[in-house]
Amino acid sequence: METLLDVPQGRFELQRLPLRKNEVLRAWDAADEYLLNYIAESNLLMDNSHLLILNDGFGALTVALNEFNPVAISDSWLSQQSTQFNYSENKLSLEKIEFKGSLDWPTQSVDVVLIKVPKTLALLEDQLLRLQPLLTPKTTVIAAGMVKAMPASVWKIMEQYLGTTKPSLAKRKARLIFTTLEKKQEQFTNPYPFYYQLDNTNYLIANHANVFSRESLDIGTRFLLDHLPKNTEAKDIVDLGCGNGIVGLLLARDNHLAHLHFVDESYMAIASAKENFNHAFAATKQAKFYLTDGLTAFKADSMDLIICNPPFHQQNTVGNQIALTMFQQSRRVLKKGKELMVIGNRHLDYHIDLKRIFRSCDVIASNKKFVIWKVKK
Ligand SMILES: C[S@@+](CC[C@H](N)C(=O)[O-])C[C@H]1O[C@@H](n2cnc3c(N)ncnc32)[C@H](O)[C@@H]1O
Fold it and tell me: Residues near 148 by Cβ (< 8 Å), separated by ≥ 6?
């Protein structure tokens, strides 16, 4: 797999986190290269420019533009870890970069904004709204992405919040979008977080813009909620890949002895889960929230029950890889004799990996679309 990014700014060694043996994917795409070439040709950046980079996948933009002291905002903890890792691998000083989570924005105005178009349109919308107060008439905003990840809705939303857009020619299936900022007459309010009431409860569920199934309860999650264990003796239960934390919320309600551990690598997921838990239980219950990669931070043989509705993509890359890692981590982290419960779309065939890792695997419930499996350590 190619790891050397060769652009006008320099040659940089770049890898994706989590590191995997036999990785086949590069840590950047043609849109990163297109954007970096354009920036070099246009002399857009000066030594004193305030540069903001949004949604850099694994650090290609931030690393290549390190000398401009970028502020890098991302909703993904893993993306930020990758960027840090790649800074270190290229012997760059981390003092030159400021990392911010997706809910923690700078207040100073910016000169150049580079946006890698995120997978979720709602996240782009939230970001454009948060960006607005930082723009001046002189700010340049450029969005970049692979053509297949930039449907017409991306242009529309940029026009709605920023101004007229102009596309570049497509190069190697990548495209840039330039904007001419216009003073908008309309005052926009940010529709996120989005709230809905969870059926048959009085829980009001907050969902920040990048949260899985942010507008209503996902049908898979609904099926899982109907089969969650109740009144167990479990002391420590993990909601692995918690999103808005609904699964852990109901586990806490129905398992009085349990202490809940909510895990996600998305800033917005953890913020939503925290808000939802605190709102549901006020000060009557405590839980722990972990912004991290799966169960890497957990001790071996420490948990009594893990429940997981695994992700099926990392950024734009679809696959079972993260799910597989989560199953392997669960095997390490569960106490002997304790269980992992997994829900997945029938066609994802998680039972094959689960059986290989845990030796046997039971079906708890299934319907036309979903299966819930249980495995024991
Ligand atoms: C399919 S969603 C499930 C959300 C929620 N548990 C539910 O059932 O509605 C998967 C979640 O896994 C999270 N995720 C993805 N990669 C992760 C990783 N490496 N570590 C922890 N969480 C991750 C995603 O951010 C997302 O919130």
Answer: 173
